[in-house]
Amino acid sequence: MTMLKSMLLAALLAVSPIAEQDQRTWAIAVAKHQALDRSVVYRYVQKFEPGFDKRAFPTRIDILWDYDSSFGMPSDDERDRMDVAENTFVPGVERDGSAALVYVETAEGRRQWSSYVRSEDEFMRRLNDALSSSEALPIHVESMSDPDWALHAEFLDGLKPQEQEESSK
């Protein structure tokens, strides 16, 4: 995550709110990968609904979808497949407030959906249920304990100086 933070600090191009869903405000940030001069696109929750308690979601789960690309971003067809998958699994895993998707990163041959969850076992059961009627997808899942949301905080901290710089222009 340290490389991510320095990449964002060095070359953030845009931060803009995109929508409010369930009283969550989502935003998009586009950065440039310094070494490769390619875009990295982040869609993330900028503001949670009132009363949202991060402490209730101690585990972070990342769903990773690797794809082939000579320019870093997925093809239109691959992106469409990813969007369909997301629209299929997110409602299932977030049902009853059991998980919260907090950001999606797309760059360099990978899309990553990062959620914080109440229970890893419940999340996996719901993910499998949601995707059971879908074709096999090129995804794998990683989980880690992050009760303080430290990884998410580091990501957001990487945005703050750029947001301030953008607003002062």
From TrEMBL:
Residues of the DUF695 domain: 61-156
Keywords: Signal
Residues spanning the signal sequence: 1-21
Pfam families per UniProt: DUF695
Name of this chain's protein: DUF695 domain-containing protein
